[in-house]
Design a protein that fits this description.
heterodimer; A: 231 residues; alpha/beta; Rossmann fold; four-stranded antiparallel β-sheet; 8 helices; B: 404 residues; alpha+beta; 2 domains; six-stranded mixed beta barrel; two-stranded antiparallel ribbon; elongated
Chain lengths: 231, 404
């Protein structure tokens, strides 16, 4: 049963960047297991390797060594196209700078993952509306992204991350470009998502106020897990 | 991702920047338009020539004297004086594929009627000349075989000469002076029009016998016009004539002919070839602008890829595969160039109409050239769009997302 409860299993993950003459070891062997339905945070100063870890967990990058299981599937050896498929169906990203398509309506932005998983147009529209409703942006569907405030943009981004019902949401400094008040609002969105649908959420941040929302925090320093903070 | 969706995505991306889309397509628009307009001019010239030739008659053969060599000196074509009216007679009698012959003796003189004068070509021809040339009599009659045989001083006027000397008055029965010799006008020819650079109607016809004795003072003929029997192979008729003349002129086997026979197909081929060259030249110059248009598309697509690296990163992060990105950018380029192609075709057809309207040149737009231009525009899109699209699809999602 413990296997079913595990969503992510990292075994001795290392990542080495070849910088010509020198080699940069960004991750020096991370072993960790994340349970399904957890809301956890990865913390660490810049240069600690937390972004590298996030990229690997998000299937945007492959580890140099080590094995990564996502829902019992070994993703560390998959090719680019299969990784794209994994990102499409299992992972939702929320970025610090929103990363929405410019001059495009909220609805179309939210639909984007569905386009790449061949969901029929009508069904995609319906799902996108549902996701927008879920983040409390009903009525903003037709607004272009440049007409939205920072908080609203991040809500659209969260809706996009949700729309394909992923197993995991990865949020990289989701409040970094927002003022404190809006940031807290966004964190409330994550919190209620987590509480209502029990989705696994991984927050990557250096802000203790954000990591306070997590049930579980790991601190990364110099490519290793420095300490774990379970609450 | 289904192709239809990808097309929709590409159209939306193009729609987001309409001005740029239009300016990018402009290169293709002008290129395709220019190709179609230029080729239509070439095709028009070709058609015009074909029309002229068929008016002249397609079963025509011309017998001309060859070039003579005398003590190492070559004369020009036609310098032999061995072609006679007896040859012409023999051709009509002995070659069964020949229908009509007309020996020709031409000169150019001043003609006078009352107080007017005009310098024109005198064609001394046989009585079958109008039949050979498909040329109808307007008024009166052409001279008869008997009038040719007896060397009568009668003439038939081309319409231009008629207009210049008689200015609308009926010339039939009037007497004009050709090289001071009086000739009675017995008929006029219908207007035939311009042939390339000279007017075919600026001419007076007289019996070739009269031209030989009264005007030129020779006893041979300068050329013989022959028409082959309708529907027969002119090449075969040509062989018959050559064989006959070699015997008549006692030319030893292997020796050069003192004459040559050309059929209309030879001459038409020559003319066709020059219009073909014209078409290729014009089309070639216009294709360069199409090529430049293609390079314009590549340039803009490359700029567009760089500008949209973030967008590509976002698409990849939500699950776009390499092929999805490749296809999106490729389709954008193809849509751009096909759109340009369609507008260019309209522009080309329109301007070829304008050219024929205002420049008085005949133009002809063929379905083939439209299809070709369209296909060419499409392949320009594929060819010049592929490199930028591939570049986009090979981006690393992490770098693309972080790109500032």
């Amino acid at each position: 049963m413990s296997e079913n409860n595990t969503i992510i299993k990292l075994e001795n993950i290392t990542k080495t960047y070849d910088m010509g003459e020198t080699k940069l070891e960004a991750l020096k062997g991370i072993t960790y297991t994340i349970k399904r339905g957890e809301m956890m945070a990865i913390m660490g100063p810049s240069g600690s390797g937390k972004s590298t870890l996030m990229n690997i967990i998000g299937c945007l990058d492959k580890p140099t060594k080590g094995t990564y299981y996502l829902e019992d599937e070994k993703v560390s050896t998959m090719d680019k196209n299969r990784l794209a498929g994994i990102r499409n169906r299992r992972i939702g990203f929320v970025f610090q700078n929103f990363n929405l398509l410019a001059r495009t309506s909220s609805l179309e932005n939210v639909e984007l993952p569905l386009i790449y998983s061949n969901v029929p147009a009508k069904e995609a529209r319906e799902k996108a509306r549902q996701a927008i409703k879920q983040v409390g942006l009903e009525g903003w569907e037709e607004h272009k992204t440049n007409q939205l405030s920072g908080g609203e943009k991040q809500r659209v981004a969260i809706a996009r991350a949700l729309v394909n019902s992923p197993s995991l949401i990865l949020a990289d400094e989701p409040t970094g470009n927002l003022d404190t008040k809006t940031g807290m609002d966004i964190m409330e969105v994550f919190k209620s998502l987590h509480e209502e649908s029990g989705i696994t959420i991984i927050l990557v941040t250096h802000d203790p106020e954000i990591s306070d929302y997590a049930e579980n925090i790991i601190h990364i320093r110099d490519g290793l897990i420095e300490k774990e903070d379970r609450r | 991702m289904k192709i239809f969706r990808t097309i929709k995505v590409a159209l939306k991306a193009l729609g987001r920047n309409k001005m740029r889309t239009f300016l990018t397509a402009l290169g293709i628009i002008i290129g395709v338009g220019a190709v179609i307009a230029m080729v239509s001019i070439g095709q028009g010239a070709k058609k015009e020539i074909e029309k002229r030739f068929s008016e002249m008659g397609t079963n025509l053969l011309f017998v001309r004297p060859g070039s003579r060599e005398f003590r190492g000196r070559h004369g020009g074509g036609g310098s032999y004086d061995t072609l006679t009216d007896a040859d012409a007679q023999a051709i009509i009698e002995q070659c069964n594929l020949v229908q009509y012959v007309s020996p020709n003796v031409n000169t150019r003189v001043q003609v006078i009627y009352s107080n007017k004068n005009w310098n024109t070509s005198i064609y001394g021809v046989g009585d079958k000349y109008p039949l050979i040339r498909n040329w109808d009599i307007d008024e009166g009659a052409f001279f008869t075989e008997a009038q040719v045989k007896t060397g009568q001083k009668v003439c038939v006027l081309g319409s231009e000469v008629n207009n210049n000397l008689f200015e609308g008055m009926s010339p039939i029965g009037q007497v004009i002076r050709i090289k001071k010799i009086p000739f009675r006008v017995i008929g006029t020819m219908k207007t035939k029009g311009e042939a390339m650079w000279f007017s075919q109607d600026d001419v007076i016809f007289i019996p070739y016998t009269t031209a030989q004795t009264r005007l030129v003072g020779i006893n041979y003929v300068q050329s013989i016009d022959v028409s082959a029997v309708e529907g027969s192979d002119t090449a075969e008729a040509q062989e018959q004539i050559e064989e006959l003349l070699r015997i008549r002129h006692k030319i030893a086997p292997g020796a050069d002919d003192d004459f040559n026979v050309r059929d209309m197909a030879d001459i038409q081929e020559g003319a066709q070839e020059s219009t073909q060259i014209l078409t290729i030249l014009l089309g070639g110059i216009a294709s360069i602008s199409l090529l430049v248009g293609g390079i314009g598309i590549m340039n803009i697509m490359l700029v567009s890829v760089t500008e949209r690296i973030r967008e590509i990163g976002v698409r990849m992060s939500v699950g776009a595969r390499e092929n999805d990105i490749l296809l999106q950018f490729l389709i954008e380029a193809i849509v751009l160039s096909l759109m340009g192609g369609i507008i260019g075709i309209l522009l080309g057809v329109g301007s070829s109409k304008l050219i024929s309207q205002f420049a008085g040149m005949e133009t002809s737009v063929s379905l083939g050239s439209i299809l070709l231009a369209f296909l060419f525009a499409g392949s320009v899109g594929v060819f010049f769009g592929f490199y930028p699209a591939r570049k986009a699809s090979k981006l690393n999602p992490i770098d693309a997302l972080r790109y500032e």
